[in-house]
Design brief:
The chain has helices at residues 2-9, 30-47, 74-87, and strands at residues 15-17, 20-26, 52-56, 59-64. By secondary structure, it is an alpha+beta fold. It has three helices and four strands; from the N terminus they run αββαββα. 44% of the residues lie in helices and 23% in strands. A four-stranded antiparallel β-sheet has the order 1-2-4-3, with helices on one face.
Length: 90
């Protein structure tokens, strides 16, 4: 877990609550947020690891956790990094 905590510390603006990491992504337009969610969904399907997603007008909150482990894993860190990389496309 120490390695996960170290990696989490390198992620920008991600917060941890228990065994979940989350980040709010802001968009200028509602449909940009929807397009971002679609891209995160395609990524999630490709790796078979799915985040929680909340859409609130122009703010999208993405939350990663590994329910089967009841803890954070490398998959969650990878999902956070992928989310950040996809956000840079907007």
């Amino acid at each position: 877990m120490a390695d996960i905590q170290e990696q989490l510390g390198k992620l920008e603006d991600w917060t941890q609550e228990g065994e979940t990491i989350s980040k709010k992504f802001k968009f200028d337009r509602y449909l940009d947020g929807i397009n971002f969610v679609e891209k995160v969904g395609v990524y999630a399907e490709s790796v078979q690891h799915h985040p929680g997603i909340k859409i609130d007008h122009t703010t999208v909150t993405v939350s990663w956790t590994t329910f089967s482990k009841k803890d954070l894993t490398e998959k969650d860190i990878a999902g956070a990094k992928a989310s950040d990389n996809l956000y840079r496309l907007f």
